[in-house]
Design brief:
Length: about 120
């Protein structure tokens, strides 16, 4: 199945987005919008893959980690945005540096874990 090689690419997209956000001091752009869309699509695909295939070991852990990462991101984003009162405040919101670092590390680990799955 193509889940694992495409997951490597998804991880690389997360890395690219995190590096871009770090360079732009947390100001989101079209790159971040594309990366977020990829995350949501890959979340759905990961859930389908998780429940439709017989998975063991690292092959099971990889989609679980991705789903957990995206859900944690949704929750933390919601908590950040719910305190804002106007649409202008939401437009001016910058991604906090710790979030960018977590995304960078996760993208790296997710890509490496999928490369390992391809190798073994």
């Amino acid at each position: 199945m193509l889940y694992t090689p495409v997951s490597v690419l998804v991880g690389l997209i997360l890395i690219f987005d995190a590096v871009h956000l770090l360079r732009e001091n947390g100001k989101a752009s079209k790159i971040s919008s594309v990366a977020s869309t990829v995350e949501v699509v890959w979340l759905v695909i990961s859930l389908i893959y998780l429940f439709s295939e017989e998975l063991y070991g690292l092959k099971l852990l990889v989609p679980i980690l991705f789903v957990s990462y995206v859900i944690a991101g949704f929750i933390s984003s919601f908590l950040m945005v719910r305190e804002l009162e106007t649409p202008e405040e939401i437009q001016e919101l910058k991604v906090p540096r710790p979030f960018m670092v977590v995304a960078l590390i996760f993208g790296l680990l997710f890509s490496l874990a999928n490369i390992l799955v391809l190798i073994i």
